[in-house]
Each structure stands twice: as C-alpha cells, then as structure tokens.
C-alpha cells in the first residue's frame, strides 16, 4: 500500500511526476488529548526508486487522532487510516492508491 502523486521539490529544482509516498514507523500513543497515531511519510522519486533500494528524497512527520470507540472495523487498520488521513490534506488530495 502506498500513494502516488506528482510532487515538486523546489529546494532541489525538479518535479517527480510519479512520486511514491510510503507510510513508515507508525505507532499509536496515549496522550493528554486522547489516542493519537504518529508516522513518518517517506517520499521516493518513484516506486522503482524505492524498490531498487534508493533513499527517500524527503520525509515528513504526521499525527492524527485515533478513535478507540468507533464501531467501524477499519479503525483497526491504522496503516490504511494513515493513507486515508493523508488524502484529506490538500497537498495529497489528488494522490492515487498503489
């Protein structure tokens, strides 16, 4: 599971037309505000670059709330929830699942 989208890297001066976004280091923590999910998002130039062992171009850190009281069975797939959360953000709203 991953996302694919065009990403521009202004500090490097290029655009990756099929950047490959992969969730990693996901964990669920209890905080003062309730349960939260934290994860890293690794951005590779492409799926081929990732599969060939290349390092990510950039990494981002994300956090979103985690409901322990939802009756939705998808709540237990936190990786899927992370990708769904990313697609709610304007910069990833047009990303496709791969």
How is this structure best described in words?
It is built from 2 helices and 5 strands, in the order βββαβαβ. It has 98 residues and is mainly beta. The protein has one domain (3-97). It has a 5-stranded antiparallel beta sheet with strand order 4-3-2-1-5.
Summarize the structure in short:
The protein is about 15% helix and about 45% strand.
Structural descriptors:
single chain, five-stranded antiparallel β-sheet, mainly beta, about 45% strand, about 100 residues, elongated
Distance N terminus to C terminus?
6 Å
How many individual domains? 1
Biggest sheet, in brief? 5 strands, antiparallel
List the strand order in the largest sheet: 4-3-2-1-5
Helix content: 10-25%
Structural class: mainly beta
Which word captures the global form?
Answer: elongated
Determine the number of helices (DSSP H or I, runs of at least 4 residues): 2
Average pLDDT level? 91
Strand content is: over 45%
Rg computed from alpha carbons, rounded to a whole number of angstroms: 14 Å
N to C succession of SSEs: EEEHEHE
**Which consecutive residue ranges, at least 5 long each, have pLDDT under 50?**
none
Number of strands: 5
Multimeric state of these chains?
single chain
Task: Describe the secondary structure blueprint for this structure.
Elements: E1 3-9, E2 14-31, E3 34-44, H1 47-51, E4 58-65, H2 78-86, E5 96-97
Antiparallel strand pairs: 1-2, 1-5, 2-3, 3-4
């Amino acid at each position: 599971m991953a996302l694919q989208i065009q990403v521009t890297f202004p500090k490097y001066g290029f655009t990756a037309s099929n950047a490959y976004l992969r969730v990693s280091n996901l964990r669920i923590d209890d905080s003062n505000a309730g349960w939260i999910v934290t994860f890293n998002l690794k951005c590779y130039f492409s799926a081929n670059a990732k599969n060939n062992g290349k390092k990510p171009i950039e990494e981002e850190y994300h956090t979103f709330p985690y409901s322990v009281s939802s009756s939705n069975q998808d709540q237990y797939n936190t990786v899927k929830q992370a990708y769904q959360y990313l697609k709610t953000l304007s910069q990833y709203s047009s990303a496709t699942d791969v």
